[in-house]
Amino acid sequence: MSRVTARRRMRRISPAGQIQRPDTLAVEEPLEIRLDGRSLTVTMRTPGNDIDLAHGFLFTESVIGAADDVVAARYCAGTDDEGRNTYNVLDVALRTPAARVTTRNFLTTGACGLCGKTALDEVRQRSRFPLAAPEPLVDTEVLAAMPGTLRGRQSVFEATGGLHAAGLFTADGVALAVREDIGRHNAVDKVIGWALRENRLPAADLVLMVSGRASFELAQKAVQAGIPVLAAVSAPSSLAVDLAVDAGLTLIGFLRGDTMNIYSHPERIVAIPASRAHPA
């Protein structure tokens, strides 16, 4: 398998002076996803969990509807300039050949030129799993612990400081799957692909936790996977909030310590008792 970290020389400048030394960086390489031998798309990603990534991407873009739709996913042989094996082309064989699919059919790559209403309508039409139920109920103390748990499972981030992470948690805070990637959307596709292959979709009892901001793209993927709660350590975008309100998704931003902003459907969140809460 390709390496997930690489060493590069750099010059460090600090008040103590200058020093040249190697630095550990997250690897970024292209992954070409093919369908039945035909090129479908290329994404820049950190190698690792590529089969989960492909499953999650194909599912959230409505190319497949279940893990059984995929007969096989195989790397195509290749070598780099130094003769080492590369694993940057993944051919996915489908049980039933897909109708002609191009990147223009993908909501996440076709957002340019779409207005907000059109984007929301697209998600509504593609969604398989309504988020109507008020469950799961998640305690704010459980949510507050999730970023630390997510960070603790980021082994490559610990070495490089350069990766996003996504995790699927139970309502009582157990991390079922954590994935890292240079692209936040890839990290989410990897955990959704894991859930698809483990027969955990729709993930109506789980929370999706992400290490960065909550964009429309990530909210769309959560809705497509039937995940009712999306929490992020940073800010949501305006269109992500609009989608969350429209689709029934509980969207939480700025989840840091025991503070958080709930932007939509707060009925799933159980606040700590008033006697233990900080004064306004």
Automatic annotation (TrEMBL):
Belongs to the FdhD family. GO terms for biological process: Mo-molybdopterin cofactor biosynthetic process. Its main location: cytoplasm. One of its GO terms (molecular function) is sulfur carrier activity. Keywords: Cytoplasm, Molybdenum cofactor biosynthesis, Transferase. One of its GO terms (cellular component) is cytoplasm. This is Sulfur carrier protein FdhD. The active site is at C112 (cysteine persulfide intermediate). It comes from Nocardia donostiensis. Pfam families: FdhD-NarQ. Required for formate dehydrogenase (FDH) activity. Acts as a sulfur carrier protein that transfers sulfur from IscS to the molybdenum cofactor prior to its insertion into FDH. InterPro entries: Cytidine_deaminase-like, FdhD.
